[in-house]
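LAB NOTEBOOK - FOLDING QUEUE
OPERATOR: T.R.
BATCH SIZE: 2
PURPOSE: Compare the predicted structure-token outputs for two unrelated chains run back to back under identical settings.
PRIORITY: normal
REVIEWER: second-year student, initials M.K.

ITEM 1
FIELD SEQUENCE / FIELD STRUCTURE:
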Amino acid sequence: MRSILHIDMNAFFASVEQRANPALRGRAMAVIGSENRGVILSPSYEARAFGVKTGMRYGEARLACPDIVFVPADSAKYSHACEQLIEIWRSFTPLVELFSIDEAFLDVTGCGELFGDPVQIALAIKERIWEEMKLTCSIGIGPNKLLAKLGSDMQKPDGLVLIAPDDIAAVLEDLPVKEICGIGPGLTQHLAAAGIRTCGELGSAPLRLLCSRFGIIGERLRNMGLGIDDDPVAPLATQQEEESKSMGHSMTLDEDCSDMPLIERHILQLSEKVGRRLRRGLYSGRTITLTLRYADFHTFTRQRRLRHAVNHGLDIYATAASILHELRLEQPVRLVGVSVSALERDVEQVPLFVEERKRKFLAEAMDEINDRHGAFTVTWGTLAERNSHERIISPAWRPEGDRQY
């Protein structure tokens, strides 16, 4: 039987900011991504007491808590804190899977002789995190990732919940299906339409019914209702290898935008970020994808496959911009995204033509300067007046390798 821990840092961004600034401690505050528009990224627990939630719009948060303090996000600060956390986690087990920048799964199955039983390990981890970083976390312990994640959600902040094999049926019997990681609002509604509202009902539902309604995920859903999950903890190196199938970045604009030159500028910025990551990971890609989200949240993508793989920001931009020019925008744009897929490893060789060699060497020189002094220290004139979007952390962020950028 495996022993899996799920560690969920409590109000991570907000807690890091409160630790860094004593004036914020004990105050209702929230970390935001943009000073002009957007949603709450991480409210402090003092703000949550007033009903402020992650994803809430600024105006709603201000109505709920008039004295709330908004703090712009600082991605470098959170990335550094996550790297410190990973060092602590890896001192207990090499099997650490980063679920997000503030969550991780740890497989401690073989760690008993060194550190004790799973509860003792969890307590030791919480103590280390507090002593070294002055941050708290909630930890769930279970025989698999599904139940460990459920356990960490059951007691916040600073909680510790063990779901033992003998307790699984009792814990899941009356638990709403929406509490299970992987069952979102849409799927919850479809399950309710089938008369399934609890995990107990989901686990006992006929497999034929689930498969007829939900297709190939029917069996997976029933297993979730029974607390069955065979998904192993994937160490960071494995995650990075699997995730290198595509690379992309997106940004929510400060204001809905119909200005094509300004949208192109954002596309150029995103293309440069993607190109830098591709080069750092020694990748090139053949498929360029442009993602747009309208003001009413309708989101769509368009992509183009190239004859030759590219990793230069200007090549990515040229293709993404050409896709944009073929579109007739029906509404102002709220979000822009650029990604490159169909990746392949670069074979190091000097380009044949002089202009190509100049561009390659220029890109390498810019990468070296930006690696040393920070992203966009040296950039194209069009991007000289950068906006605040560099504060946003990509969901694909990883502490090592090409996902770091």
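ITEM 2
FIELD SEQUENCE / FIELD STRUCTURE:
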Amino acid sequence: MAFSVALQVYSVRDYAERDLKSTLQKIKKMGYDGVEFAGLYGHTASEVKQMVEEIGLIPISAHVPLDEMLSDPDKVISEYAHIGCKYIAVPYLPEDRRPGTEGFQQTIKDIEMLGNITHKYGIQLLYHNHDFEFQKIDGEYALDVLYQSVPSELLKTEIDTCWVNVAGVDPAEYVKKYSDRAPVVHLKDFVMGKSEKPDKMYELIGIDSDKKEEEEEEEVFGFRPLGHGIQNFPAILTAAEEAGAEWLVVEQDKPSMGKTSMECADISRQYLKGIGI
């Protein structure tokens, strides 16, 4: 399988917040080919561009909140183009923009508009899902409605295989469903000890964290380094290859198993190396 592998820098944000350059150096040393940004940690686009060029990491993509892009599309998108990002992904929808709300149709329109602007700068827009997009609208998953509504040249997929599984859908089959529209696939492992999803799942990805409740919820749901949870990665990777994916992005929203975030990122990279990637 001929993939390039990137790390979502959000996975090691506690290191990046202290020293972005040394964090990127550690990521390179682990054997990652590139990085996906989620913010620039107080640095300018030019500074980040210089860092990745010096270190030898490919700045393949960036997660940029929808409202941030909409606030000044040309300014925001041109900064990531300057860094060298090939992709920008809509990472997450606030509640008032999600399927089942009046804001969802406007969200689709906004995404299509941004897809046209990113093309101006030579960047492809992606959408990074969670599980709430698997709510059905007229018998179809809202995520499918989004992809049906926006032309494929303006919006491609960044399927987060963890959240697809959490939604009760087979990640490998879902990746294959978007063959030739899935250039980047998110790899994330997890454990979930109960049949019902916990109420506080999104606190685990850094949304409105309440520490006591968060710790209680992690007993029933927790992120893990690749190969240490329930995901069937051989099947997912075969599907990604069949779908024409070029990049795999490793993400772990919160460290676990008593390891630091950097140790978890290393465990994930070593797992992929161990299966030939």
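REVIEWER COMMENT (ITEM 2): The chain is about 40% helix and 20% strand.
FOLLOW-UP: none requested
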